[in-house]
Amino acid sequence: MNGSASSLNGMEGRAAFVRAxxxxxxxxxxxxxxxxxxxxxxxxxxxxxxxxxxxxxxxxFWCVPWxxxxxxxxxxxxxxxxxxxxxxxxFGTGSGLIAIAAAKAGAAEVRAxxxxxxxxxxxxxxxxxxxxxVDVVCDDIVDGDPKVDVVLxxxxxxxxxxxxxxxxxLRAISQRGTLVLTGDPGRHYVPSHARELAVYxxxxxxxxxxxxxxxxxxxxILPLPPSDDDDPRAAGx
Length: 237
Ligand SMILES: C[S@@+](CC[C@H](N)C(=O)[O-])C[C@H]1O[C@@H](n2cnc3c(N)ncnc32)[C@H](O)[C@@H]1O
Prior knowledge:
- This protein is α/β, with parallel strands linked by helices.
- The chain has one domain: Rossmann fold (3-Layer(aba) Sandwich), CATH 3.40.50.
- Helix content is 35%, strand content 24%.
- It has 8 helices and 9 strands.
- A hairpin with a 2-residue loop joins strand 1 and strand 2.
- The chain is globular.
- The mean pLDDT is 91.
- S-adenosylmethionine (SAM) binds next to helix 3, helix 4 and strand 4.
């Protein structure tokens, strides 16, 4: 483990790490929300890479708001009726941006899940900084029944095997009548069977996206028609 990551094994150490390596900054697309944000991702990556790889994790996703997440958070704040009074899950929460937007928009309950313990620490800090209540959980709940009314998933379509898993699960949830929305800036494995609800031009860091902005869509994930096989792109066929 790298020196600066030596205290990452407890919740308090992880929270201290997040605070030490980031600053509270407004989110470009939703300036009412402020997040503990890194000015550069690579130094945090270096500081945590051994710790992350021991846990099968790759990138410190929690330290910036991703383009797909920003689009979805903006959409939720522009259409609060989607979550108002409802139970909401933010799947792959990272910084917690979408969970915070849902709470601000009047959701009855908001749960945020991520497999990265540092994301959980960051999300808890960010929820407190924005004065909202979010139930933050570190778990892989894919294939389970989330028991919510709305599932939101920001920018999770960047890896083939994981995307196929997420797509199957989210489609099954949609099939049961739960609203499932995702925000996506054109990642390779986004499911094609989806309904476009909005498009935003989201400012991005060139360190992460090789571009100053990304056109990012908000999509409703739809169940596949019974006759279709699974989405070929997400299934990796
Ligand atoms: C690119 S980040 C997006 C974060 C946030 N939604 C946003 O848009 O800013 C993807 C997140 O998904 C999380 N993730 C990956 N696999 C997951 C799984 N099986 N269950 C929950 N979270 C997962 C990662 O740890 C990461 O925080």
